[in-house]
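lol so apparently i was supposed to do this last week
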Amino acid sequence: MKKIAVFASGTGTNFEAIAKACEDGRIAAQVALMVCDKPGAEVEHRARRHGIPAFVFSPRSYASKADFEREIVARLDAAGVSLVCLAGYMRLIGPTLLDAYRGRIINIHPSLLPAFKGAHAVEDAVAYGVKVFGITIHYVDETLDGGPIIAQRAFPYEGSDPAEVHRLGQIIEHQLYIETIQKIIDESISKCQ
Ligand code: GRF
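anyway here it is w/ 5-O-phosphono-beta-D-ribofuranosylamine bound
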């Protein structure tokens, strides 16, 4: 069984969707580790409810990003993780983690990249007046929301309420992330055959 890790910093609705899909077989993998950089975040409670091992840490208690990323890499290695799924992990991945898991880290972003990179993608898109919004899943490299695109899904919205765009977008995110993770697993299995 493939082992995946999910990284999150907050609410964790994508984590929850992925965990449920692994439990009911829509994703042929096990969530072997949840990583969170915000002690007390809701995602921590979700991991506990699903019985998923969690590494929850406070970046301030490490001397540097390289130090806490070394610890993350050790835990990913120990858990046998082959795919890392960032789902609202509000931190740029540094060279320590990137070099260890290059090509095996993916991220979900609430815009049609390369438009509206960064932490306020939905708010920026609404402020710009766009009429078609969307979700992107991409490989992670050293650039902000800049790695090769794996999947995108668009949806129309003509209003001006960012909360509504977030709501509509999350419904799509949960489906698209599950489908994309399973597709990556299928492709990696067929490469091995
Ligand atoms: C999602 O909108 C995702 O696109 C972005 O962060 C948000 C995480 O939401 N990267 P949740 O914590 O999974 O509910």
